Structures are given as structure tokens and as C-alpha cells.
Amino acid sequence: MTEQEFLEILKETGGYITGSHIVATSGKHLDAYLNKDAIYPHTRAVSKVCKAIAELFAHDNIEAVVGPSLGGIILSQWTAYHLSEITENEVLGIYTEKTADKDQILTRGYDALVNGKRVLVVEDILTTGGSLAKVVRTIKAAGGEVIAACAMVNRDPDKIDEHVIGAPLKTLASLRLPAWDEADCPMCKNNVPINTALGKGRTYLAERKVVSK
Q1: Per residue in 44-85, pLDDT tens?
Q2: Which of 168, 170, 106, 108 is nearest to 143 (CA)?
Q3: What one-character DSSP code corresponds to residue 127?
Q4: Residue 213: pLDDT band by 50, 70, 90 thresholds?
């Protein structure tokens, strides 16, 4: 699967929005947005994407695929399924859970399932790489051998690499999405309406209405 083919799948499922005016959680203004949760209800699209991930590691003797909850659960299951089909060996699909202090840990006895296994770690969107790095550390601490990590999209390829993640890293796409402060936002200057369906657009407009009173 080429990067363009993957991005087309994202667009078709509403996971990649362009030509809009979106207020991100950070407060920055964007003209493009990745809605990673939009693809998950579309099982054929998820299967196709995860098959592409599986094919990247078909010859690495992967024995388990691990992803961070929540989105990573779906990716780990589908990727493990396709690796099992390709290799004709059972590949386990496992996930970590987020703790109160935002760590990623193995529960439900899954630490025993990764011990001594060759592991692929999967994630949807890399913004800082923090969650993926935590999963890698947890797997290593449980005695698993992290062969590689793979994400659907790396939003900051200049900063997020194998040194940050702690394992060889591959992605289906790299996207540098421009972001502006409100004062510098070209959409604001051109009076482009705020998208209230995504990001913090609705909250942003409500707060501005309160301030203007």
C-alpha cells in the first residue's frame, strides 16, 4: 500500500479532513485534521490497513502484536490476524491499558503472553510518540523482544524516530500538518467559519461569545 492509497482510505472514512478551519485541543488553528477514530467503525478499511502493516513485517517471525488502548486494541487484533494468515502461525493480539498517571501497562496476565516473544508494537497516530514508547518499555520489562514498531501516521517525522520510540519504526504515512496561533491564523483573517464538528471548535466559539459580552 502506497502512502497515497492509505491517505485515500483515511479520507473516504472521514479520518483525514482537509480545507477546513479547525481548533485543535492545543488551541492551535489547523486547515487539516486527523480524526483517527473515524476509520475504526469501517471494518473493511481497518482490515485493509492492518493487512498492509502485516505485510511490512511478514518475514520478521512476529509472535505477538501489541497496541495501546484504545485504538491500538483494534489495530493489534487485525494486524495479528493478518500476520497469522500470512505466516500460517498463530500471532497473538494483545493490548496495554493506560494507568492514572498515563503509563501503558500489561494487565489480565498479558505480561506472561509477551514474555520471550518477538513483538510488533502498533499505534494509530504519532503526535509525540510518548504512548508508543511507553508500550515498548513495558514489553521489554515483561521479557518481550520488540522487533519493531509501526504507526499509521507520524505527524512529526523530524522528531519522532526509532530513538524516541525505542525500537525500529515504520509508518504508512508521514504528515506535517501546519498549525497557527489564533493571531496568525490565515483562516481567521479570511473569515473562514470554524468547524464545530471536530476539535474544540464549538467550545472555542462558546468561550469567545462569553468574552464578547
Answers
A1: 999 999 999 999 999 999 999 999 998 899 999 999 999 999
A2: 106
A3: S
A4: very low
| Beta pairing partners, 100 | none
Best CA proximity match to 120, nearest among 110, 135, 107, 130: 135
What 3-state DSSP class applies to 77? helix
Q: What cell was used for 50?
A: 492492518
CA angle 37, 38, 40 (to 5 degrees): 70
- pLDDT tens digits, residue range 122-162? 999 998 899 999 999 999 999 999 999 999 999 889 999 99
Say if CB 45 and CB 39 are below 8 A apart: yes
Question: What does the alpha-carbon distance between residue 153 and residue 74 come to, in Å, rounded to a whole number?
Answer: 16
DSSP 3-state percent helix, strand, coil across the chain (nearest 5):
40, 25, 35
Q: Any idea which fold 3-201 has?
A: Rossmann fold (3.40.50)
pTM score, whole prediction: 0.87
Query: Amino acid letter at 81?
Result: Y
Q: What residues contact 201, with CB distance under 8 A and at least 6 apart? A: 21, 22, 23, 194, 195
Rounded-to-integer distance, Cα 62 and Cα 84, Å: 9
